[in-house]
Design goal:
- This protein has one domain (about 1-219): Orthogonal Bundle (TorD-like), CATH 1.10.3480.10.
- Helices cover about 70% and strands about 0% of the residues.
- The chain is built from twelve helices and no strands.
- It has helices spanning about 1-25, 30-35, 40, 45-50, 60-80, 85, 100-105, 115, 125-145, 150-180, 185-210, 215-219.
- Helix 1 crosses helix 11 and helix 9 runs antiparallel to helix 10.
Amino acid sequence: MQEDLKKEQLARVNIYALISRLLMTEVDEDLLKLILKDKNILSFFPVFKDWKKRKGMSNKDLIERYLNVDFTNLLLLHLIPYESFYTREDQMMETGGDNPVQQLYNDFDFRVELDTARVMAGDHIGVELEFMYKLCEAQMKALDDGAEDVVAQIAEIEYNFLKEHLVEWAPLFLLNVKNEAGTAFYFDLANFAIEFILSDFQYLSDLKKNNFKTKEESE
């Protein structure tokens, strides 16, 4: 049972890491090669897997001719991947200290290098997903250490962050990405991200009913 919990937690760590990376910066050749070689990861991209335009094309050409163009159109030019745009009544982005997630990041010593990440504020979808990745990573360490109380505490933080932030706006943004995507890659990414965020929130909601303890811990 404990090993199953660790496998499930490792999957959460890896998925949050993947989708945060892909929604924050353009895909590079090494990452694309990994996606195409790993059957488990590729299963998240079913339309892209059979996408005719990538057949007979090098990864470098695929990235330069299609994927980078689509990323730029979706994440940098046409759509706005920031929570404050979706949640403020005036639809203005909050890039200063009053950003809704910045204080939370500060409380957990989560630092956002805006210039390096090429984002304008901490409520960018990729940054919020990276925060979830870091929480899941800390939870994994607590699980390895047998610190059950810490595991439960982090699960509660994850639940609250999803409920108050990502679930409030990310599915709508990702639906827009899915509708506007010019490549099968970003269509699949948006579709998978929506499903994962909502399913992970359901997973944490179920844990909440048991005070964020796993069945094994409560027995």
